[in-house]
Specification:
Elements: H1 2-19, E1 22-23, H2 46-55, E2 59-66, E3 71-77, E4 82-83, H3 88-97, E5 112-113, E6 120-128, E7 131-139, H4 142-149
Length: about 160
């Protein structure tokens, strides 16, 4: 009888743990000093400033692939929001807040998602204001991917 009660309690604990929803990662800490290095100096000549601005253009390639499903790739430019991305204005706004670092994106921290396993891989590569950007991550499902990257990862 005691074994039956113990087995019942143990199976109940497993069921309870499996029913808990997955939560998106909390918002990453921001680095307040990351953009100070890229600021233009006011004592430079206009030709030097325009050269620096052209070097600081932002052009990224965003690729999202679902395991066993569709793969989508788009371009995103943020000096003049555009490219082939479906929502460049929203995506660039998020990237500006994150200093161009996709790892620091936190579109919906604390988002409640199911624990379904449908892996989505995200790759972002290119230049952000003169700095190279290389980011890659696999998320358990589309909900966690969108919670982490918002409009940037939503293709």
């Amino acid at each position: 009888m005691l074994k039956a009660v113990g087995a019942l309690a143990l199976s109940g604990a497993f069921l309870f743990a499996a029913a808990a929803p997955a939560l998106a990662d909390p918002a990453p800490r921001s680095d307040q000093h990351s953009d100070q290095r890229s600021a233009l100096r006011s004592d430079q000549r206009p030709e030097q400033r325009s050269e620096q601005r052209s070097e600081q253009r932002s052009a990224l390639r965003v690729l999202v692939a679902e395991k066993g499903g569709e793969t989508k790739a788009v371009t995103l430019t943020c000096d003049r929001d555009g490219g082939t991305h479906p929502s460049p204005r929203a995506a660039c706004r998020l990237l500006r807040k994150a200093g161009g670092d996709p790892a620091r994106l936190a579109a919906s921290p604390g988002q409640v998602c199911t624990k379904e396993l449908r892996p989505h891989a995200v790759v972002v590569a290119g230049m952000w204001r003169g700095k190279p950007v290389v980011f890659g991550r696999v998320y358990s499902n589309a909900c966690l991917m969108r919670a982490a990257g918002g409009a940037v990862f939503t293709l």
